[in-house]
Specification:
mainly alpha
Length: 321
């Protein structure tokens, strides 16, 4: 009987460590996801600052050419790891038109953002760009069929009011740059909507490859109308390509982060990049935003974090019940 009791006890006790192990693994993956996400935001902020600095000498077309040449090399590496090169063939693609439209949206984002950044202060430009999540929420009832509640609409309006504080008359922001940055934000919101539609339909590696190719071509179309008059020498070209690899590496870090942590967990942290942009603009470029612009940035950040937060709260409440 004692032997049977011992066996029975061991059978009952043996599965006990498994939930604890799963919790430990989940916590480890969450920490990894948060770390990768913060690293990606730091890389994005550093590249934007680098681009702002280099735009004083080179046009946006040179910046985008070097950037997406480097990202194209990374895309080849990603496809090599993916292994199935035939997945790039048009005949094998599902939702190919949506994939092309998604790539086109990001190409417009890159073209408008880089062109605007040449004349816009980094902090204000980044803040306008970060209205994209608000725009996506505003468009989601029509493009995604999602219901947006009254409080969410209030948050969207709060964020847009914050943007108006930034672009208000008298803030000395260039009109063309402001409009281009707003177009960039709208197109990035559409890019995010299309990314959600393609999730689980088109492999991530294929999406990355098409994005790199489209952006390399589309972002350099302005060179047909404004030919590049000054090309970088070898050391400068190497520096520009290195910056491009930082930008592409940030995108790969994001992909790895989202494989380890949910989007609802990571999304509220996006606005760390806006904080970094304010710090870089203030201490590197000696262009701190004024008090009203800072209030506008806080309103945009608060609205964006709130809109990213409810899913987490509802999920937690559901688990607790």
């Amino acid at each position: 009987m004692a032997e049977q009791a011992a066996q029975h006890h061991s059978q009952i006790g043996s599965p006990a460590p498994l939930p604890a192990q799963r919790e430990a693994d989940a916590a480890r993956r969450l920490r990894q996801g948060l770390g990768l996400f913060l690293a990606a935001l730091l890389c994005f902020a550093c590249y934007d600052a680098f681009a702002k600095h280099m735009l004083a000498r080179y046009p946006a077309t040179v910046m985008n050419l070097s950037r997406y040449t480097a990202i194209g090399v990374l895309a080849l590496w990603v496809m090599h790891r993916h292994g199935d090169w035939s997945a790039l063939r048009w005949g094998r693609l599902r939702s190919g038109k949506l994939l092309l439209l998604r790539s086109l949206m990001l190409a417009i984002v890159a073209t408008c953002f880089m062109t605007a950044l040449a004349t816009m202060p980094l902090a204000e430009a980044t803040a306008i760009y970060f209205t994209a999540p608000l725009i996506m929420v505003a468009l989601s009832p029509w493009l995604l069929g999602e219901r947006v509640g009254r409080v969410q609409w209030v948050a969207v309006l709060l964020g847009f009011a914050g943007m108006l504080l930034i672009v208000r008359p008298g803030n000395a922001l260039p009109l063309a740059g402001t409009v281009l940055m707003a177009v960039s934000a709208v197109c990035y919101a559409l890019f995010q909507v299309l990314t959600r539609k393609l999730s689980g339909v088109v492999p991530t590696a294929v999406q990355f490859a098409y994005m790199a190719l489209f952006c390399l071509v589309i972002t350099n179309l302005p060179a047909l109308f404004h030919p590049i008059t000054e090309w970088p020498d070898a050391p400068q070209l190497a520096l520009l390509l290195a910056g491009g690899f930082v930008s592409g590496g940030a995108q790969l870090l994001l992909l790895q982060a989202f494989q380890r942590a949910s989007a609802s967990t990571l999304a509220p942290m996006n606005y760390v990049q806006l904080l970094l942009a304010v710090l870089i603009s203030t201490f590197w470029f000696q262009r701190p935003p004024d008090s009203l612009a800072l209030y506008g940035m806080l309103m945009i950040s608060a609205a964006g974090v709130y809109l990213a937060w409810p899913r987490r709260q509802k999920h937690t409440a559901h688990q607790a019940s």
